Amino acid sequence: MWAKIYYYFDVGGWCMWGIALCSVLALAVFLERLFALHKEIVLPRSLAIEVQDLVRRGLIAEAVTLCRKKESPLGRVIQVGLENAGKLRERIKELVNEVGQREASRLGRYMAILNTTISVAPMLGFLGTVIGMVDLFTSVAAVGEVTNIGMIADGIYKALYTTVFGLVVAIPATLFYRFLSARVESLVLEMEEVSFKIVDLIKNE
């Protein structure tokens, strides 16, 4: 297997190393975000329940302390609402939205890297193919005539390796990106829903 991998890198040249780097980055970002976007890390279910219970009993300071102890994106959003308890609903909502947008941005951290690999990997693949084709036709031009059609076919399929590997990296990276984007969107919507419930409990009409 290693001999085969070495062969692909040898034939593909430096473009293959670029594609390999894209694959490592895409996988690393996917795994890191997969863990970071776990629902219990972003939206601890028990936190929302306990905070609502404390707020209903008028224990706002204890609810703020709980948010600080249970560090999470949801906790940071709720905390700013609690710290402004008693203000007008629209004002609290505005502050909660502001922190919520910051947390949403954090949830999408590193996604730009993943998105970049989706574009760069196939482009490196096409570049490797073009370089291979140029080398092939330069060799043919140097000989002056095509004496063996097998030589042309051999050069073409070797040149296409990088395109294949570029697409092999870009296709799963696209699926990773779509999955994580949908995950972030879903978590942000849920965080917004929970925080607005708290806002309704602490507002001053």
Labels describing this entry:
205 residues; 85% helix
* Count, helices: 10
The N- and C-terminal alpha carbons lie at a distance of 70 Å
Q: Give the integer mean of the pLDDT values.
A: 89
Structural class: mainly alpha
Largest pleated sheet: none
What's the helical proportion of residues? over 70%
Given the C-alpha coordinates, what overall shape results?
rod-shaped
Element-level helix/strand string: HHHHHHHHHH
List the helices and strands and how they pair.
Elements: H1 2-12, H2 14-36, H3 39-42, H4 45-56, H5 60-69, H6 73-82, H7 89-107, H8 111-143, H9 149-159, H10 161-202
Helix pairs in contact: 2-8, 2-10, 4-5, 4-10, 5-6, 6-7, 6-10, 7-10, 8-9, 8-10
Brief digest:
The protein is mainly α and 205 residues long.
Overview of the molecule:
The protein is mostly helical and 205 residues long. It is 85% helix and 0% strand. It is built from ten helices and no strands. Helix 2 packs antiparallel against helix 8, helix 5 packs antiparallel against helix 6 and helix 8 packs antiparallel against helix 10. The N and C termini lie far apart (70 Å).
